[in-house]
TrEMBL record:
<dbReference type="InterPro" id="IPR044838">
    <property type="entry name" value="EGY1-like"/>
</dbReference>
<keyword id="KW-0645">Protease</keyword>
<keyword id="KW-1133">Transmembrane helix</keyword>
<dbReference type="GO" id="GO:0006508">
    <property type="term" value="P:proteolysis"/>
</dbReference>
<feature type="transmembrane region" description="Helical">
    <location>
        <begin position="44"/>
        <end position="65"/>
    </location>
</feature>
<feature type="transmembrane region" description="Helical">
    <location>
        <begin position="207"/>
        <end position="226"/>
    </location>
</feature>
<keyword id="KW-0809">Transit peptide</keyword>
<feature type="transmembrane region" description="Helical">
    <location>
        <begin position="85"/>
        <end position="106"/>
    </location>
</feature>
<feature type="compositionally biased region" description="Polar residues">
    <location>
        <begin position="386"/>
        <end position="399"/>
    </location>
</feature>
<dbReference type="GO" id="GO:0008233">
    <property type="term" value="F:peptidase activity"/>
</dbReference>
<keyword id="KW-0472">Membrane</keyword>
<feature type="transmembrane region" description="Helical">
    <location>
        <begin position="118"/>
        <end position="141"/>
    </location>
</feature>
<feature type="transmembrane region" description="Helical">
    <location>
        <begin position="270"/>
        <end position="287"/>
    </location>
</feature>
<feature type="transmembrane region" description="Helical">
    <location>
        <begin position="247"/>
        <end position="264"/>
    </location>
</feature>
<feature type="transmembrane region" description="Helical">
    <location>
        <begin position="322"/>
        <end position="343"/>
    </location>
</feature>
<comment type="similarity">
    <text>Belongs to the peptidase M50B family.</text>
</comment>
<keyword id="KW-0378">Hydrolase</keyword>
Amino acid sequence: MSDHKSNKQLYIQISLFILTIITTTISGAEWISGKSLLFGEETVGWTEFMTGFTFSIPFLLILTVHEFGHYFTAQYHKVKVTLPYYIPLWLGFIGSPSIGTMGAFIKIKERVDSRKKYFDIGIAGPLAGFVVAFFVIWYGFATLPSLDYIYQIHPEYEQWGENYAEHAYDEGSLVFVLGPNLLFSFFENYVVSDPKLIPHAYEMIHYPYLFAGYLALFFTALNLLPIGQLDGGHILYGLIGPTKHRLFSKVFFLIFVYYAGLGIASPYQLSNWMMDEALYVGFLYLSLHHFSSEKRERLMYALGIFAAQLVTVYFFPLAEGYTGWLLFSFILGRVMGIYHPPVLIDTPLNLKRKVLGWMALVVFVLCFSPKPFDIVETQSKEDKSATPTIRSETNPSPY
């Protein structure tokens, strides 16, 4: 019976992996070509599908190395753990762009009894995945194609040559853009041989190695948030112990929620103010479900976050967070929890592990982007140097 159950689980995992290869390859083909599989005059064909592997293979390689970093470290510590479960997700059938997956996860099937084991299992995935992502991004920037590559996707750009970005976007157009991070800035400045080949921020999605690497950095930073049972939570718990971790996890979570919703509530916009803000405070209250068991305390913190955001916007009217983080803060605060489970063996880490822990913090800083994915409204052609205007839009289309 046990072998039958184990085989069934393995079949499910293999099937999910194969489906994820297909969905990420389709998504890669759509992003690279600027076409849809189902909609539009020109749709994704077999040629574009095969090109999609230049996105799906490096992306899934990084994701797989990350998960097996966790897996093999758990095996080393004799902690029972499953092989990775991949989560395929393609939204092209509703005309919405997606990356073909929601990631992957492994299931730890028994209690982890020591601080050291939690630390080792938590840190192995992000560091292993980051190493592969580093070389994928390096390769992407070191082998940037000529401008003919972008002309094949957007033939109209050829008339403007290397200055296409100054002419190609009409004022008021909505464009999907990847936010900056320190690692990309490093490669752009010190690895690229010809700066003219660096794609405009609006066109980065067409470059599969860069896009795959960017997504890997995004997921790495997400996992390294020092909250709860995320990889970063395990690492911080190992570094500073249970008492300090509980306090730090609270503080980091409050800062995270505060930044995510910054700009939603404004004292300068009073239309439907009471209803909208009441709903927003209610959302904050729900997001604090695992923050405190006391309803009154949760309401107090929700109102406190709301007030802090209002005050910030009052003194700095252009202050704006990233609403995309609100969903993740809800998942953390309502579903996953923000506190770390206790362990039986609470022995402090040795110096080697502490150094690795602070290295993981450096990796987080290199990978993190305050606004990783945005819809921006392009400026007038006379004002291209200005910062793009951020629009509150959902379901960005790359097509």
